[in-house]
Amino acid sequence: MTNFKFPEGFLWGGAVAANQYEGGYNEGGKGLSTADVMTGGTHTIPRRITMKLEEGTHYPSHEAIDFYHRYKGDIALFAEMGFKVFRLSIAWSRIYPNGYDTEPNEEGLKFYDDVFDELKKHNIEPLVTISHYEMPLGLTEKYNGWAGRECIDHYVRYCDTIFRRYKDKVKLWLTFNEINILTMPMGAFLGGGILLDKSGTFGNNAADIPQVRFQGLHHQFVASAKAVKLGHEINPEFRIGCMIAYLTLYPHTCNPDDIILAQQRDNLANFLCSDVQVRGEYPGFAKRFYRDNGIEVKMEPGDENVLKEGTVDYYTFSYYMSNNVSVQPDLTQTSGNIMGGIKNPYLEVSDWGWAIDPKGLRWTLNNIYNRYRIPLMIVENGLGAVDVITEDKKVHDSYRIDYLKKHIEQMGEALQDGVELIGYTPWGCIDLVSASTGEMHKRYGFIYVDKDNEGKGTLGRYRKDSFHWFKKVIESNGADLG
């Protein structure tokens, strides 16, 4: 791809999540969220879920990178880069501290008014994720999170509040971040506030009860569909999308068994959720998976109609890497985003062992678009790396520039393939806390934040080399990749 310009009006920007960057966990009337009871961790030491705050324990979300007090300066930096759009999330427990409250918290609503006004001042469009890997802790304590159908009504009340409050300030919405994480054991608490293991074990080592996870996922489907319908009634100009953690999977060999396994995992991990949210019904392969695994998802009368009436306007997803799958045992394994796989001998890996596969993004864009034919947006992509800041406060992250450049080139190829791609918001445009490990050491941003894994640092902000590079990319609408 040479001198290819992206479509006029293409939405360049960046993405973050409240629990990973906002901080102010007990300020402005905010209640505790599920993220607020997750301890710090590292790549090798898993996070813990404590439910009650322990004195002397580090909880990364409590301060995060303190956007709560520094949002004006951060937004000014995003504007300096030329952002057209900024993907952020609203902390549900800032609006409804316990989740089941009947009246919203005005201080919390005012905070986001101020953030959206600041974005407007800089001509940056907000793209708001309504629920991003957190929910009020009160809903976990009372209903075991999304395992309880009661959460549907509480979520819809929350949506009604923010849709009406911000109907003239926000037009782009996403109902749930990476909703498909509930198809995987590690996603129960992170994505659903569901406790399957009372010991506080987090991640893939926690106990698993698939029946509970998939019932919780159904409740999220119904809640999402109701939110879409409600949003369109409140403001017909709202565009409301789904968000999927797309896990690109290749068969490791041309053995038909590997081909079938890759297809089955692709269906379950990627297409179950988007088929429901885009097409409005459960696909046949999901019904077979439930039947084969003894899962009985309980539906209330009317649920199927709700799903049909609440389909999304556009499809967004995260893409970081690809994985290989095989029926062969004892092949070399590698780590990855949400799930690992078989090591791909044709690809390099990041500091965290994630395969770097730009061409996989082109394949993924075509695969999604050929299935759904609705606008697509990449709302997470990036390289988590160990950055070194020099004495004169510079970060020479040529490796990040190289990663992003190659992925943007493949986005251009997909556009020329006929894919309707409308925007790109790289993840963690400013360094933030990792959701899976709770660490700061794994950095994604164009902006360096002075903070370490233990929560120490000045929180100073410094432009990396990638900051200046991405500014040129946006100014040239993708034509100048440097």
Automatic annotation (TrEMBL):
InterPro entries in alphabetical order: GH, GH_1_N_CS, Glyco_hydro_1
GO molecular function term, any single one: 6-phospho-beta-glucosidase activity
EC number: 3.2.1.86
Keywords from the named record: Glycosidase, Hydrolase
NCBIfam families, alphabetized: PRK09589.1 (NF007154)
Protein family per UniProt: Belongs to the glycosyl hydrolase 1 family.
PANTHER family associated with the record: 6-PHOSPHO-BETA-GLUCOSIDASE, GLYCOSYL HYDROLASE
Protein name as annotated: 6-phospho-beta-glucosidase
